Amino acid sequence: MSTPASSTLPTPSAVPRTGCDLQPVDVVRDAVRHFGARYLDRVYTPAEQASYAAGGPASLAARFAAKEAVLKLIGTADGVDLRSVEIRTPAVGGGRPAVHLTGRAAELAEEAGVDAAGIDVSLSHTADLAMAVAIGLQRPTTQTTNETATMNETGTA
């Protein structure tokens, strides 16, 4: 009995994707010193800039590293406004930061099959270095039953 060519079969599971970045705090400190609001407004959202008031350049460097880690996770930074990757922290009580994507960053995540709402990020910093790791799941792809049959017969699609 054959299956219609239009039916699809899901692959077994989602594929984890990761991104990481390390950022020297001095680079951010120098950028703020030399370019001030122009740098801040070009790279950080107003909410992220508020973290600078609370945590200084190390906090901004950690957010910069997180932005880069997320962009690595979705596959590219080409044409992405860094403010379209926002690293949000809870207003009260601290807690885990959250990733919010808009614009081209959200489009790239969608194209990569990554659920933007499910991206998790972890930040850390010392006085000298900030780092971030981002993880997300790439949605399973589907294959037509004809492609699956070809794979079963030849081992390739």
Task: Report what the structure shows.
With 157 residues, the protein is of the alpha+beta class. It is built from five helices and seven strands; from the N terminus they run E-E-H-H-H-E-E-H-E-E-E-H. The protein has helices at residues 25-35, 37-43, 46-74, 103-112, 145-154; strands at residues 8-10, 15-24, 85-88, 98-101, 120-125, 129-138, 142-144. A three-stranded antiparallel β-sheet has the order 2-6-5. A two-stranded antiparallel sheet has the order 1-7. The longest helix is centred in the middle third of the chain and has 29 residues, at 46-74. Mean pLDDT is 84; it is low at 144-152.
What's the overall geometry?
globular
Using the CA coordinates, give the radius of gyration: 20 Å
Mean pLDDT over the full residue set:
84
Span between termini: 21 Å
The unreliable regions are 144-152
The helix/strand series, from N terminus to C terminus, equals EEHHHEEHEEEH
The portion of residues forming beta strands comes to 25-35%
The helix/strand class is alpha+beta
Summary keywords:
three-stranded antiparallel sheet; single chain; globular; two-stranded antiparallel sheet
